[in-house]
Automatic annotation (TrEMBL):
It is an enzyme of class 4 (lyase). One of its GO terms (biological process) is L-serine catabolic process. The lineage of its organism: Bacteria, Pseudomonadati, Campylobacterota, Epsilonproteobacteria, Campylobacterales. Residues 327-402 form the ACT domain. Its EC number is 4.3.1.19. It catalyses: L-serine = pyruvate + NH4(+). Keywords: Lyase, Pyridoxal phosphate. This is Threonine dehydratase. Its cofactor is pyridoxal 5'-phosphate.
Amino acid sequence: MLPLQKIQEARQTIAPIIEYIPLSFAPRLSSLLQTNIYLKKENLQRTGAFKIRGAFNKIASMDKKLRANGVIAASAGNHAQGVAYSASYFQIPAIIVMPEATPLLKVLSTKSLGAEVVLHGDNYDESYAKAAQIAKERNLSFIHPFADEEVIAGQGTIALEMIEDQDLDYVLVPIGGGGLISGILSAYKALKPHTKIIGITAKGAPAMRESFYSKQIHNAKSVRTIADGIAVRDVNVLNFSYICEGVDAIIEVDDEEIASAILYLLENQKLVVEGAGATGIAALMHNKLPLKPNDKVGVVLSGGNIDVTMLNLIIQKGLIKSHRRMHFQVVLVDKAGSLQSLTNILTKVDANIVQIDFDRTSASLAYGDAYVIIALETKGESHQKQIRQELKANGYDFKEIL
């Protein structure tokens, strides 16, 4: 594991640019789970994620002449912004290679910090290969997002802050490449060895979890998850060795579980958290840890840079799953008053129409009929049951659209 002194030195190095955000007790989540949950809100860092810690520590530690030539990184977004910000701080050029599917928010944010952005590849690993090629061609220093001791030391400073705030039984940390959890476990095993370090991976990026439990590296053929910040295909040897040495368990969550955690944090904690950052909450909400009532659990919310389009999709699907929105298609006779008769019924059951569309041309319709597609705001499962019963009682032919 990384020496504690290296992490302590990193804390001094990054102090000028890091927002100190203490652990925050989450009363609603604690009540829901019948235990004590504390949040480390790295989504509130100045670049919206923890990655600024490692990036800044690495660039600050470089030889000044070498640093002046410029730096390059490959990143899905958060490391990109950390490197871009740090390069701007030291007034050096920076190039960031990002996967082509990187959310626009992260691309624009990286450019706004002064970096040149190159979009290449379907995932981090393909972007990494391109960045290595450019680094060689232009004589730039490559800033690795996780397989670098200075970067890992910077990420480990999170643990020093958490240890000062609260004596925890568990710490839940998202795993992509493994730099964050490598730094955190190094500090905890040195200072609080009784604390269990639990890694959280996305089901669509299984390489590190499978490698951890088989004790040998197994790279994934592909990755697919809404948690783009941890969508890493290949396992790095350095981080794998740290993880095998200090992680107590690795838990897997799927995209549906991650989405529900994002929505829960938004509604109940008033926090905007991206997919990777919500994985720890997803694991807790879906009972993947054998917790006791007196346990103290720290959860690292690693970032908040979620694409607005993705957030909107998660909200809309979440409303449907929680029976707060209902979509259905009904057949009406295409004549004056038909729609009013339908809306009168919906008014009677206190259902609020938020969207309505007509289709008169579908080949499946009889002549003189029309489809009406309606979206309703509803008040739960029993309310939706009442709406269905009322439509059936009045002879409407309808089907729900999920």
